[in-house]
Amino acid sequence: MQKITSRRNPVCAHLKKLGESRRYRYESGEMLCDGLKLLEDAVNSGARIASVVTSEHLPFPLPIDTRVYSADRGLINSLSPLKNAQGTVFSCGMPEAGGIDGLRAPALLLDGMQDPGNVGAIIRTADAFGIPNLLLFGECADPYNPKAVRASMGAVFRQRLVFAEPWDLRTLICSGFRLVGAVARGADKSVAESCLGDAIVAIGNEGRGLSEAIAGLCDETVGIPVSPECESLNAAVAAAIIMWETVKQRITKQE
User: Fold this and answer.
1) Are residues 175 and 226 in the same domain?
2) pTM for the whole thing?
């Protein structure tokens, strides 16, 4: 195992840029991940592991063509944009995004959500609840940002993601999908009253809510009842409640 001692090493420069630049991630087709748990999830998912820099013992085998380097914690901390970086960072191929062909309801649409931590948490929840498709629309945070990847707890390697354009949504609506918008105030129905099992439910930006483009396409709006003193819920929490209600309705229907 080769030891890296300089931050100017080309491997370090590549990993550092993967963590900092969305454009560079998509140009290279790789993302930066942090921690042994994520590394194990990536291996088990069949992701292409490009390079690993670690200060730890690796307790599981890696693909034979993986480049593995050792380094001290200080150098590893400098490569990761995350607070409390763990003792291993690695680069791997980004999962291939899906298209709208074969898309099944229920699905969730993230409309311009800005916080990568929220995006990652929603990916994790969708994976846990068996929501088959997650659509990302507008200026949404990159799901392959290191913060989103960590928040997903490995679900980013399993969850089907679709980067949706306006014409994709029109195609889906013309194909019979219902688009339901989640709003903080003035909803047509509560989430418990709406049939979500055959719908794409849109969750808006953390600050401004749904964009005009999405709001204008919605068949109806739904809300989560909260106390009058509460202005709104965190976007990832709201998404989790909506996904749970969707699963509950599916279970009730099956029974």
Assistant:
1) yes
2) 0.92
